[in-house]
Amino acid sequence: MYMETLFSLSGMSSPVEIVDQIIGEAVRSKASDILIEPQEKEVVVRMRVDGVLQSFGVMPFGSYDQVLSRIKVLGNMDVTENRKPQESKIRFEVDDRAYVLRAAVVSTNFGQMAALRVLDMPQFSDFSQLGMEDELAEKVKRNISGRYGLFLVCGPTGSGKTTTVHSSLRHLNTGEVNIMTLEDPIEYIVPGINQIEVGEDVGLDFVSGLRTVLRLNPDVIFVGEIRDAATAKIAIQASLTGHLVISTIHGRNSVGAMYRLLDLGIDRYMINYALRAILAQRLMRRICKHCQETYKPTPSEVEIYTREKGTGPATLLHGRGCDLCRHSRYHGRVGIFEFLEVGETVRNLVFSGAGETEFAKELGLSGFRSLTSEGLRMVDEGVTSVREYIRTMFDAR
Ligand SMILES: [Zn+2]
């Protein structure tokens, strides 16, 4: 193994310092996850940066025992429990800023593995930092400025949904409205907004949370996720009775998300009255500017590109890998978006009873900018690679 032993008690570091160093490094390099994994001979530390795991270093088992205890102490876990999985939250300060990490400890074949997810990731603070064009940001703002209606955001884990939602809430947070959220868990603390945590551990689900919140007559409600029929129904009702409701929903793209609402038993006419817009998004890694070069794509890359675009690729770029990008070939990320605004065209299509495929096709004919076309545009402009396009569009969970 080529990795250095970065974390060892034999040097100057105490377990406290090692944990500080690991979490500090993760936060500074904007990692979303830290995995501390016992292998046969040593313990490997990996971090997920820009959505992809990177090796970070190794530590001997002798150091790890105490490091693991430190993590358990931080999370108020049972230090003596070595078999059963444990989960909790850790509040941690790095460079005078507070972060929340979701920590899990679970036994694997070589010992207990620790997985830390950095929940408070101030990676992008607003729409434009996500890579959203001003014109689209204005459209989003217009759609959330009404006094009622439903605005949905969809995309897989790590697609920047939380950033979009919180940018929206911050935009609305003028001090003149009551904004209430139901989140599982609360990821960012936003001053001036009434945030409520839901989830099994707090004994509150989205539906009962929503009922409670509605009695307090808020102007804006954020519901963490619409994942069942009951939540969908009450969210729609709320959005038709003088509340602006923002939520996320599962779906490959905006059209898929709308059909998900139908699958959850929401009527077509309810969708037409309540739904304002759906924003679907992905985050793609940018090719490292320092080592980018033209290259010959593989036959399968050409095949997928051609199938998606309808024509073959011209010149394609990728990163060769260099010290600056830690040989990951990429540096930073950019958001791509698909915005389905419920206007006349969409309303007519919804009322026509069209199926998902037909709907998407008709929408495409009306000049709709889909995730596919936006992603391929990024490939054509050399911002990202075909490989990254495939990873984010097809492998995303
Ligand atoms: Zn590079």
UniProtKB/TrEMBL annotation:
<feature type="domain" description="Bacterial type II secretion system protein E">
    <location>
        <begin position="16"/>
        <end position="391"/>
    </location>
</feature>
<dbReference type="GO" id="GO:0005524">
    <property type="term" value="F:ATP binding"/>
</dbReference>
<dbReference type="GO" id="GO:0005886">
    <property type="term" value="C:plasma membrane"/>
</dbReference>
<dbReference type="Pfam" id="PF00437">
    <property type="entry name" value="T2SSE"/>
</dbReference>
<keyword id="KW-0547">Nucleotide-binding</keyword>
<dbReference type="InterPro" id="IPR001482">
    <property type="entry name" value="T2SS/T4SS_dom"/>
</dbReference>
<protein>
    <recommendedName>
        <fullName>Bacterial type II secretion system protein E domain-containing protein</fullName>
    </recommendedName>
</protein>
<dbReference type="GO" id="GO:0016887">
    <property type="term" value="F:ATP hydrolysis activity"/>
</dbReference>
<dbReference type="InterPro" id="IPR027417">
    <property type="entry name" value="P-loop_NTPase"/>
</dbReference>
<keyword id="KW-0067">ATP-binding</keyword>
<comment type="similarity">
    <text>Belongs to the GSP E family.</text>
</comment>
